[in-house]
Amino acid sequence: MNIKASLVTKSVLALTLAASVAACNQNKPADKPAASNTASSAPSNKPEIVFINQDSVVSQYDYIKDMDKRLESKGKAAQSDVQSRQNAIQREVAEYQKNAATMSADQRQATEQRLNRKAQEFQQYQQNAGAAVQTDQMNEQTKLYEKLIDFTKTYAKENGYKLVLTFKKGDPTMLYGDPNLDVTADVIKKLNEAYAKDKK
């Protein structure tokens, strides 16, 4: 019997950041005058596609650190509670086994029925406790997903990015990215600044 808050933060981030494609600005200027021989016709130096290092976000985003602590604390509390109940039943079983020889047949039968009932109730309680931990995980992951989606959309819009990609170590989807397109440090900085304001 082992209840663990098995965090899947990395997979959540993979889905979140990979899906965080910001809508590009489709408001094109109408009837723009013919471009003269000026620098206005030159392409902008600002990139429209950038990427984020997922591993860095997982390790440096304060919200995820606090989320992991919350889930770990709830998981440990559930594990401790279940273990305590299991130990109590085991003590009763040991006590019965010690005294069974001196008990009447009716007493033995009644005690065994009671212990069997308790064991079944414990199994149900253990399953419910595990389900509660999983529900907490799912709720936390949903909040994280929504928070990152909302942030990335706003961040991309403010900076004029049309596509925000993500990569992590060992993921073959993205094999190389120009370091100039890496906005991870800025994203983590702004994520933590926003989270610090939310906590106040």
Structure description:
The chain is mainly α. It has one domain (about 45-200). The protein has helices at about 10-20, 55-60, 60-100, 105-160, 185-200, and strands spanning about 50-55, 165. A two-stranded parallel ribbon has the order 1-2. Helix 2 (about 55-60) runs parallel beside helix 5 and helix 3 (about 60-100) runs antiparallel to helix 4. The longest helix has about 55 residues, at about 105-160. The chain is rod-shaped, with a radius of gyration of 28 Å. Residues about 1-10 and about 15-40 have low confidence and may be disordered.
Record field, number of beta strands? 2
Topology order in helix (H) and strand (E) letters: HEHHHEH
Give the tally of structural domains: 1
Query: How many whole angstroms does the radius of gyration measure?
Result: 28 Å
Helical fraction equals 55-70%
Number of helices: 5
Reported for the largest beta sheet, the result is: 2 strands, parallel
Mean pLDDT rating? 84
Q: Which structural class should the secondary elements be placed in? A: mainly alpha
CA-CA gap between termini:
39 Å
Signal peptide: 1-25
Family: Belongs to the Skp family.
Organism: Mucilaginibacter litoreus
Coiled coil: 93-128
Brief write-up:
This protein has one domain (46-199). It has five helices and two strands; from the N terminus they run αβαααβα. It has helices spanning 9-19, 54-60, 62-99, 105-159, 184-199; strands at 49-53, 163-167.
